[in-house]
């Protein structure tokens, strides 16, 4: 594989699923040497919070590392030298607890500040459901949800495709089996 071909391959590590924003961040770091999440956000058209999250994930898996800072609050990053193995017991195909915490924190923040949003955005589209599924059916439900989002994915990395009133919307789906509770004797 040539250097050009390897640059086009998505970044994967055991425990770190490929993601287009992480690929963009790595390319930007290769070009600039160092950058902060704010600089990345300005360059890529994403929020600094989203860039910060993906930079921390890249750092966790050794793709990047913190660079020395010349100012107090700035947190610059640079390409790392080695990628450590995934943490023991970390499933390779799911986000870690930190990501789940960010999802929950974002949702709670939305609920606290909902009245600040324009009227047409104040409706909470959250829902939950219980379904009895086989593992194969659960995988198919997941695939259907992912396919439903396909028409909108390019907007994340290509701001020019976003309609005038488009805003970033968190989409969180968690499919997991409910295990019997040992305390209830189930």
Describe this structure in words.
This protein has seven helices and three strands. It is mainly alpha-helical. It is globular. It has helices at 3-8, 20-32, 37-44, 48-60, 97-113, 135-149, 154-157, and strands spanning 34-35, 64-66, 77-79. 41% of the residues lie in helices and 4% in strands.
What would the keywords be for this entry?
4% strand; 3 domains; three-stranded antiparallel beta sheet; globular; 7 helices; 186 residues; Arc Repressor Mutant, subunit A; mainly alpha
Text of the CATH class of the largest domain: Mainly Alpha
According to CATH, the fold-level topology of the largest domain is: Arc Repressor Mutant, subunit A
What's the CATH H-level superfamily name of the largest domain? Answer: Winged helix-like DNA-binding domain superfamily/Winged helix DNA-binding domain
Which structural class do you get from the secondary structure elements?
mainly alpha
What spatial form do the alpha-carbon principal axes imply? globular
What is the architecture of the largest domain at the second tier of CATH? Orthogonal Bundle
User: How large is the radius of gyration?
Assistant: 19 Å
Measured distance between first and last alpha carbons: 54 Å
Task: Name the average pLDDT.
Answer: 76
Percent of residues in β-strands: under 5%
Number of helices: 7
Kindly state the percentage of residues in helix: 40-55%
Poorly predicted residue ranges:
1-9, 83-95
Main sheet makeup: 3 strands, antiparallel
Order of strands, widest sheet: 1-3-2
Total strand segments: 3
Topology as a string of helices (H) and strands (E): HHEHHEEHHH
* Total domain count: 3
């Amino acid at each position: 594989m040539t250097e050009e071909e390897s640059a086009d391959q998505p970044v994967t590590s055991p425990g770190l699923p490929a993601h287009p924003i992480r690929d963009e961040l790595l390319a930007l770091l290769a070009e600039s040497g160092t950058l902060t999440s704010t600089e990345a956000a300005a360059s890529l058209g994403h929020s600094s919070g989203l860039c910060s999250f993906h930079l921390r994930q890249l750092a966790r898996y050794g793709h990047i590392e913190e660079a020395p800072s010349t100012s107090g609050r700035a947190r610059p990053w640079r390409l790392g030298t080695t990628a450590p193995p995934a943490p023991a017991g970390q499933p390779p195909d799911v986000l870690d607890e930190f990501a789940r915490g960010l999802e929950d924190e974002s949702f709670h923040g939305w609920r606290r500040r909902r009245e600040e949003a324009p009227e047409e955005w104040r409706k909470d589209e959250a829902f939950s459901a219980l379904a009895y599924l086989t593992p194969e059916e659960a995988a198919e439900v997941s695939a259907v949800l992912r396919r439903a989002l396909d028409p909108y994915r390019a907007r994340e990395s290509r701001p020019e495709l976003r309609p005038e009133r488009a805003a970033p919307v968190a989409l969180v789906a968690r499919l997991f089996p409910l295990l019997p509770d040992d305390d209830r004797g189930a």
